Q: What sequence folds into this?
């Protein structure tokens, strides 16, 4: 590191210029990165709904309706006129209303009441249609122009459009709110007005490079686009703080700034490397998820850790030395005191905290395993038009979710039996198939391709089942299972289901299996890093236990509140909180280990808390602020919930590290020394 440091110091202007040019290129390329808003694209290739979607795309041209318009207080003629205008919008297909299923030339009173009320009730008309994938925002905007303010639009296409509208703006908004908070916190803990800007500039450059290099990957999910910049900034800012604090210490020992910086880089490297390694492995664990959103997010966050690590150890030293005159001119006294008195408080309550955690840890573990989970992420927001439209359509016409069944083509009698049995399901409102629309008596070979193309391909028959359930939930998933079981009774394993409910049902199966795998990998990888860092067998267990206890309490809160959780947010925070906050425990334990060589346990812990509490507090408050800001500004439930969990988790991890871990380390001091290589702990006279 010393040799590399001398090269960086000598070529500092060149280093600064290269980083700025590269970040400028990445800032431009960022706008060329394709953002994917459809989470079903991240289901594993082998999942049943993925196979069904591929068959659908390959063999059928007609789409399944994914949006509904409710026209309020209209006549049949007015509804037909609206239908024509909607149908003319480029990117909209398969527009369906009452005239497609009943003879509207006859008086409506003569129509089948069950069919009529699905499309026209109490003067309100409900038109269904399919929006072309990838163009949801553009097309739904045009639909709103057609239907005006008094009518309502609802459906998965609108949810995707809302997410597309909000993602970039909300990430920018979160950053604008978060930056002044971070600057204020850094001003309180540094001795130069310009140092906070150097921290942010160094990490900001790495964030831009990380997001811009996604152009080489091709695409990222909107979740990755939303949370990666904020998380990368909050999690890796510590690296910059470590380096510049060490530089300030080295300047007191060496008058030459260049030599002081080289020494600072050398001495801070182990701490930065250990901190980044634990966080890195926490994020890498996400890439082992079968649900590929984990790989997308985990890879980007891990890439961000690497770029931040390089930026802090290469760009920041060069930038700092280039800005040395400005740093000296803007010196000020440290505003926030050392807070050494807080150590006495933590020492007094540590035993009580140990007992409290011992009492609640098992119930919290059980509770977080018993949470009710959601798997969908919509852009529907209460109080805004999307939320009001969604509520008004469902109030007037109820829920409607489509399940598409793909079965082998050729046995029309069996197909008719299947459709008949599906119609008996209490949650099924309509079954649309060849036999129900045309009739089993008419061979499809005698009809034009225009009529049969929506029902038959060369190899498969398509049946669309409409249910009155929401897209997800116990009732919705039970209905999907019943539909699949019924179809498999006739066609065995040659049945494929897709549609929003079927996709989410598969998502549930996939991410439930992912949870155990990801947690085990994250815990083992982080424990291995800690074991190598401390050369100890017991320290990894105690440190991981402390943070896992904070995670269990964090994730148990929704259970005790009776609130369902988004499973993706739950899974990601479970890993991210461990990787991002175990550094607090590492910092305190490392200091305690050093001080135990010359002090007894109680005195060593008191000194460690006095010395490290401010640094741990700063790191936790920055990460917590990032999480809560993300939760406050995001209209997407998954991202917002992830932010709140992370914000609360950072505070809980802080409390566990300064209240619970000290008692644990002191009580287990003797086995700690025995299981740590060359611990050299100071022994009492009775132990000598």
A:
């Amino acid at each position: 590191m010393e040799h590399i440091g001398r090269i960086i110091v000598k070529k500092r202007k060149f280093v600064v210029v290269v980083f700025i040019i590269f970040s400028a290129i990445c800032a431009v390329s960022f706008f060329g990165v394709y953002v994917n808003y459809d989470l079903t694209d991240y289901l594993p290739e082998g999942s049943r709904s993925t196979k069904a979607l591929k068959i659908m795309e390959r063999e059928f041209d007609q789409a399944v309706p994914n949006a509904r318009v409710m026209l309020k207080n209209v006549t049949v003629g007015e509804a037909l006129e609206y239908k024509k205008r909607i149908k003319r919008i480029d990117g909209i297909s398969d527009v369906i209303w009452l005239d497609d299923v009943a003879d509207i030339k006859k008086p409506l009173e003569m129509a089948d009441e069950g069919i009529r009320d699905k499309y026209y009730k109490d003067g309100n008309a409900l038109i269904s249609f399919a929006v072309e994938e990838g163009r949801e925002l553009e097309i739904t905007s045009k639909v709103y122009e057609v239907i005006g303010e008094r009518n309502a639009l609802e459906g998965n296409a609108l949810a995707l459009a809302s997410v597309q509208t909000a993602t970039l703006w909300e990430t920018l908004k979160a950053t604008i709110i978060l930056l002044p908070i971070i600057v204020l916190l850094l001003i309180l803990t540094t001795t130069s007005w310009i140092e906070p800007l150097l921290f942010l500039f160094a990490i900001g450059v790495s964030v831009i490079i990380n997001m811009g290099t996604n152009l080489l990957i091709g695409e990222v999910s909107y979740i990755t686009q939303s949370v990666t910049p904020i998380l990368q900034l909050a999690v890796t800012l510590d690296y910059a703080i470590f380096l510049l604090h060490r530089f300030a210490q080295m300047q007191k020992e060496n008058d030459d700034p260049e030599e002081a910086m080289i020494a600072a880089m050398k001495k801070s490297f182990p701490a930065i490397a250990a901190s980044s390694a634990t966080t890195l492995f926490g994020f890498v664990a996400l890439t082992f998820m079968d649900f590929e959103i984990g790989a997308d997010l985990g890879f980007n966050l891990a890439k961000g850790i690497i770029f931040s690590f390089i930026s802090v150890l290469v760009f920041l030293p060069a930038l700092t030395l280039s800005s040395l005159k400005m740093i000296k001119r803007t010196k000020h006294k440290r505003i926030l005191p050392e807070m050494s008195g807080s150590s006495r408080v933590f020492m007094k309550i540590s035993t009580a905290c140990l007992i409290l955690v011992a009492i609640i840890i098992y119930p919290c573990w059980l509770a977080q395993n018993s949470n009710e989970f959601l798997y969908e992420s919509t852009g529907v927001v209460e109080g805004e038009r999307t939320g009001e439209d969604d509520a008004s359509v469902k109030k007037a016409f109820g829920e409607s979710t489509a399940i598409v069944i793909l079965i082998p083509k050729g046995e029309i009698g069996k197909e008719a039996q299947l459709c008949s049995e599906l119609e008996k399901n209490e949650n099924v409102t309509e079954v649309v198939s060849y036999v129900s629309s045309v009739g089993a008596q008419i061979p499809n070979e005698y009809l034009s391709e225009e009529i049969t193309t929506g029902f038959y391909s060369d190899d498969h028959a398509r049946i669309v089942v409409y249910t009155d359930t929401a897209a997800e939930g116990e009732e919705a998933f039970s209905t999907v299972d019943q539909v699949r079981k019924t179809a498999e009774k006739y066609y065995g394993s040659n049945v494929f289901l897709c549609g929003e409910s079927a996709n989410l049902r598969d998502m549930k199966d996939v991410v439930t299996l992912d949870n155990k795998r990801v947690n085990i990998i994250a815990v083992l990888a982080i424990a291995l890093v800690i074991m190598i860092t401390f050369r100890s067998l017991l320290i990894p267990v105690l440190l991981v236990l402390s943070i896992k206890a904070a995670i269990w309490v964090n994730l148990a809160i929704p259970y005790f509140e009776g609130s369902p959780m988004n499973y993706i947010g739950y899974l990601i925070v479970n890993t991210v909180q461990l990787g991002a906050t175990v550094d607090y425990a590492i910092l305190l334990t490392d200091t305690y280990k050093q001080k135990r060589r010359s002090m007894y346990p109680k005195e060593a812990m008191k000194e460690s808390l006095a010395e490290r509490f401010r640094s741990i507090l700063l790191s936790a408050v920055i990460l917590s602020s990032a999480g809560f800001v993300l939760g406050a500004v995001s209209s997407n439930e998954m991202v917002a919930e992830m932010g709140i969990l992370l914000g609360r988790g950072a505070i809980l991890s802080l409390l566990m590290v300064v209240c619970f871990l000290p008692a644990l380390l002191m009580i287990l001091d003797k086995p700690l020394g025995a299981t740590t290589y060359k611990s050299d702990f100071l022994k009492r006279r009775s132990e000598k």
Observations:
- The chain has 24 helices and 13 strands.
- The chain has a mean pLDDT of 88.
- The two ends are 40 Å apart (CA to CA).
